[in-house]
Structure to design on (637 residues):
């Protein structure tokens, strides 16, 4: 916990120090630095290109040792094969992924901001031990709860329904910890006292001071939770069935259906990744700065 | 004010006179305010704790109960059988194979990944143009689902016509049994993990690097140290605490690996000879292929204990190393002398 604390605090000051550096070591990075970065960039992007390359060919491409490095013309056909496959339920999976991830992200942000505000700025009996408890649960693996959760949802008749993946994800310890850290640093206590002197109720203070201050951190948490929920596989794979999958579950079905025709499989991979790539293009900057500010893995 | 004046003399014997109406209203709103301050924090944290109790705490406790039972799926209840299932798992050679595979994949993914992440972070820490562009570029793989990554890479690592073997064959005249041989299958799976997580760890380490006081580098430059010397003598030692944090989090994640080995071939069983069977994959197979919930629950607890033990070892290492660092500053030294 202390190590998390220091990283978060330290990073807050980082940009200022960075500016000083530029003045001290004004020397621009050399050519080899850019060369190395380009290599890294190619490493990041190549698998996407590869899936497009295979996804735009046909079943014979993959067996051809002298295959072309230029994409073929079959991507739309392969994509259509994925989308129209009744065993995969692609549109259903896409819709399920979108709305479950959005709902989970919204819920985590709301509840984490509430709890984070209480832990960061309000005095109450037991707040210290309770926060330690929240942080400690972050080390508990998901696997420890899956058997009873499955039994519980089977009892409720929820197995196969998307609710079974939404409900367990509505709150996260990481979210509470993240908001607590952020609000502790970013809201001066005087501001809360001033609101109180003005006669604002506790909830009003939360809305006018807390929520406003929490917005950048909430955006980051929402984004991060959305990506995590979208990519989650283990629990959805257990509890959902073929008729009502999320995208990763649909992808796993795609592989067991088309174990030979990788061009269809990889077209499906690319199709399922495009929504998140678009999201990343618009919000990547914020995600990057958020990860750097928190230095906490969720 | 008036309330206290009128009440305090009367309070020991007679109840307070209920005449003074405006004062009572004032005290009521004050009391409301007090309640507000006292109870609203609990109100704010309660959604988290109520939900968490239902979907987090209850299952954990119940897993412990089920692990001692022979669970009947039809009647949906169990019969107490003691440690039998723990013994079954510990005597099962598949468990030990899975444990070995999990550690092997974990080491093959975390060690090269951290080394690569430090070097890439050092590149990004230099005075480069278009910082945001480069930072975003290393994070792109992070938005791809592990299942998608696994599908792409298991295609590239195909034994007969995979990209990697084609290239190796053309250039060096060798091919590698990526699926048959346990070690090479671990390398392939570790590559998927590395692809997805290196950029993420790079950004965490970059954040820590930017907090290193630049005076150190200035002094080193004056002393004539080159970029590499500065990297190994200043940057790496200063990252210790963050490095250990990254190691702990990747340990917790690495020991739970499931998606990549599950998708490495189309049967998802962990290989014909359990070459890449991991603990969580084993848990899935016991629970949802053989439908034995009692054994799956026992295995879940064993996994948790393994993570706990590794976590405690990490914590101990962290403490020694952090103390090591502290010796440079005078404060901890004084404390040490006093005690």
């Amino acid at each position: 916990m202390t190590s998390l604390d220091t990283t978060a605090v330290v990073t807050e000051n980082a940009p200022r120090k960075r500016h000083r550096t530029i003045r001290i070591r004004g020397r621009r990075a050399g050519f080899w630095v850019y060369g190395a970065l380009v290599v890294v960039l190619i490493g990041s992007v190549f698998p996407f290109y590869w899936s497009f390359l295979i996804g735009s060919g046909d079943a014979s491409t993959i067996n051809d040792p002298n295959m072309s490095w230029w994409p073929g013309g079959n991507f739309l056909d392969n994509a259509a094969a994925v989308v129209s496959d009744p065993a995969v339920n692609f549109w259903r999976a896409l819709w399920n992924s979108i709305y479950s991830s959005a709902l989970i992200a919204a819920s985590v942000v709301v509840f984490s901001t509430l709890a984070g505000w209480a832990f960061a700025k309000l005095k109450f009996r037991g707040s210290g031990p309770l926060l330690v408890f929240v942080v400690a649960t972050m080390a508990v693996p998901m696997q420890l709860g899956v058997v009873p959760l499955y039994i519980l949802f089977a009892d409720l008749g929820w197995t196969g329904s998307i609710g079974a993946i939404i409900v367990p994800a509505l709150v996260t310890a990481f979210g509470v910890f993240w908001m607590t850290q952020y609000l502790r640093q970013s809201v001066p206590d005087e501001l809360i006292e001033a609101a109180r002197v003005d006669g604002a109720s506790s909830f009003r203070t939360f809305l006018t001071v807390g929520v406003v201050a929490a917005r950048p951190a909430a955006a980051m948490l929402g984004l991060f939770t959305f990506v995590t929920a979208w990519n989650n596989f283990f629990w959805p794979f257990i509890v959902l069935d073929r008729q009502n999958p999320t995208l990763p579950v649909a992808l796993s079905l795609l592989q067991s259906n088309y174990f030979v025709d990788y061009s269809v499989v990889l077209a499906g991979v690319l199709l399922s990744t495009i929504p998140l790539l678009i999201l990343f293009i618009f919000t990547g900057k914020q995600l990057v700065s958020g990860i750097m500010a928190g230095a906490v893995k969720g | 004010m008036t309330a206290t004046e009128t009440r305090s003399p009367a309070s020991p014997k007679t109840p307070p006179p209920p005449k003074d109406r405006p004062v009572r209203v004032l005290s009521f709103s004050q009391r409301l305010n007090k309640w507000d301050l006292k109870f609203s924090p609990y109100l704010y944290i309660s959604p988290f704790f109520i939900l968490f109790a239902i979907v987090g705490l209850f299952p954990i406790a119940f897993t412990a109960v089920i692990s001692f039972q022979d669970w009947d799926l039809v009647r949906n209840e169990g019969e107490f059988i003691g440690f039998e299932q723990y013994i079954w798992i510990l005597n099962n050679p598949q468990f030990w194979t899975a444990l070995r595979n999990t550690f092997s994949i974990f080491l093959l993914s975390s060690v090269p990944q951290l080394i690569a992440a430090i070097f890439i972070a050092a590149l990004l820490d230099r005075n480069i143009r278009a910082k945001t562009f480069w930072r975003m570029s290393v994070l792109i793989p992070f938005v791809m689902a592990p299942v998608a990554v696994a599908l792409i890479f298991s295609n590239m690592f195909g034994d007969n016509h995979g990209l990697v073997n084609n290239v190796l064959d053309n250039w060096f005249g060798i091919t590698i049994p990526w699926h048959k041989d346990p070690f090479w299958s671990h390398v392939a799976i570790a590559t998927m993990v590395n692809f997805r997580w290196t950029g993420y760890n790079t950004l965490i380490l970059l954040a820590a690097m930017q907090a290193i006081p630049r005076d150190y580098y200035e002094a080193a430059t004056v002393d004539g140290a080159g970029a590499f010397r500065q990297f190994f003598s200043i940057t790496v030692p200063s990252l210790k605490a963050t490095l250990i944090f990254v190691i702990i989090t990747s340990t917790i994640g690495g020991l739970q690996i499931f998606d990549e080995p599950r998708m490495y071939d189309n049967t998802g069983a962990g290989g014909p000879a359990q070459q890449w069977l991991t603990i969580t994959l084993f848990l899935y197979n016991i629970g949802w292929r053989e439908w034995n919930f009692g054994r799956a629950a026992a295995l879940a607890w064993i996994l948790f204990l393994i993570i706990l033990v590794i976590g405690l070892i990490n914590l101990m290492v962290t403490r020694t190393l952090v103390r090591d660092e502290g010796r440079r500053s005078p404060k901890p030294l004084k404390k040490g002398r006093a005690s």
About this structure: The CA atoms of residues 175 and 255 of chain B lie 30 Å apart. DSSP finds 15 helices and two strands in chain B. The beta strands of chain B are 69-72, 77-80. The two ends of chain B are 52 Å apart (CA to CA).
